[in-house]
Each structure stands twice: as structure tokens, then as C-alpha cells.
Amino acid sequence: MDLKLPPDVATKQQLSILMYEIEDFIDAATQAQVRSRETDKEIPAPKPGFMFKKFLEANQVEITMGNLAKLLKELGSLKEKAPTIRFIFASEPSSEILTKLAQWIRSNSHLPVLIHVGVQPQIAVGCIVETPSRRYDFSLRQKLSESNALLEALKNG
Amino acid sequence: MDSIWLYLIIGLILVGTGAFLWLIFTIKSLNASPKKSPHDDYIKDAKAEVERIFSDDFREELRNRGRLHFEKIINENAMFLKQDLQLTASQLNEYMQDSIKKVLKEEFSKYEQSIENAKQIAIESIEKTQQLLEQQRAAMEQELAQEVQMEKQRIIKKFEENMNQIVSYYLLDAVGNEIDLSDQLDYIFRQLEDNKQAIIEDIRSGS
User: Domain-by-domain residue ranges, chain B?
Assistant: First the structure.
């Protein structure tokens, strides 16, 4: 299965939520089937959760029990093995920001990269990006330390 | 002088006694002699005269006089001796006083000198200690000034090194929640774009 993670599933936590939603969907669908057989009435199919819906929009997956079970297994594997990138902000980012970041990273790397979020209020403005091998400081603190001219000007008033 | 008289009187007494004894022996020898000479009467008379002159009263008187004179001489000599002793005692007293004064004066002057020397040594020692303290104070003052200067430099350096943090804190405090992350996104994406190649390579090499 060639899965494509939607940008809304940006972090591991969101991926876990997706998996929970799929599990819930499977449970609900199973219960609906059982009830339908028992009552001989057509029970409407359960509605997928937000993340699951976005996932389904991004991927052309046939919703069958077999497929969903396989999907869960693959998503579990992806959760363990997917490359991660850490973003450290001055405050907790919203999900929209994470979505945009995930979109940018996955569109440029073509990999199902997951984002790990950290908070450091000292950063004030900007962020710090940590890849598996390097650290990129895009914070205002770093900019100020690089800008000696600005510091000299401040010192000299 | 007085002793001469004493000796003279004693001599006279001895002479008189000797003469008397000679007369007695002579008379005895004349009495013992069977011959009666014509001088025997004279001798007998002389003896009787001597007996008469040197009677017991006379001898007693002579003895008393001699005794009185002897006592007088003894008293006079005792008085002279007493005066001499008194004079000697007072002279000795004076001499001892002078000697003691002299010795005491010498000792006191030595003591005064030694005190003066000790005082001088103490003053010199205090002056030396004062000089040493002054030197140490100057050295410590210099060292302290250096330390203060170094500390000042260190604080300024630390302040300069942490200026960016201070500015960041100020900005954070001043701006606070005014700058939302969404407002920073453009800046963040610009930075990501500038370092895109490196970031993507890192992600790919880490995966």
C-alpha cells in the first residue's frame, strides 16, 4: 500500500488519533454489521473521524475490513519508522501551522515526515529546527547573536 | 695622758709596795740576827715609823684613791670610747647612706637607660610594622582595584555576551503575545526555503 499522509496528520500524536479513529470505525462498522444481521435492517455505516476523513481524501483506499486492518498495520509501522523533524517554537503552534509545515516538508522531501513539537519561550520569535543530524536555529536570539553591528549600535546607544 | 697617770700611780703603788716589802724583809732579818747593832734602834724606829705612816687607814685611803682614780680614768675612757663609737657609727651611717644612694642612683640610671632602649626598640618595631602594613595596604589596594576592574570587565563582557538574550527577553516581554506564530510563518518559511536543500538531505539521510 502506497500511503500518503494528509498534511493534517502532521505529528505522531495526530497519527495516533488517526489510528484510533480507524479502530473506532472498524469497531463501529463491525457492530453495525452484527446489528444489521440480527435486526435484518440496514444500519447506516459509521462516519469516519476528521483525521480519517482527511486520510481518505488523500488516499484512494477502499473501505473494507481487510483493507482497514492492513491500513492500521501499515500506519503502525509508519509511526515507528517514519522520519521525524523537530520544530521548537516560542509557544504552542496551532494545528493549521503544523499542517502547513507538514505540507511543505512532505512536498519537498516526498517522504511521510512526522513533526515533533517543542516549546522554548526564550526563542521569542522564530523557531529551531532539528533534523536527525543537524540543528538549524532560526530564532531571533540567534539572529541577534550573529548581528554584531546591531549589538555594537545598541551598546553605543 | 690619762693612761700615763694611771701607769704612774700603779708604778708608785708597786714601788711603795716593793719598798715596804723590802723593809719588812730587812726588819725580819735584823730581828732574826742575834747581834744587836747600834742601828737596830734606828731600824726599829724606822720600822715603827713606816708602820705608823703606812697604817691600815693610809693603805685603805691609798687604795680608795687609787680605786677612784682608776674608776675615773675608766669612766673617762669609756666616755671617750662611747663618743668615738657614736662618731664612728654616724660616719658609718653616712657612708652607707652615700654608698646606697650611689648604688641606687646607678641602678636607676641603668634601669632608665634600659627602659629608654626598650622604648626605642618598640618604637622602631612599631614604625617597621606600620611601614609593612602600609606596603601591604598599598599592594592590597592595587590588587583589589585590579580585581574590581577585572570583575567589571567580566560583568560587562557577560552582559554583552548575553545582550541578545536580554534583548530577546525584552522583546518577549514588550511584544509578548502580540506576535502570533502565524505572523511569524512567513519568516519561518523564508528560513526553511533558504536552508531547504540541507534540511531535505538531512531528513533523507536520517530516514
Answer: 2-113, 179-207
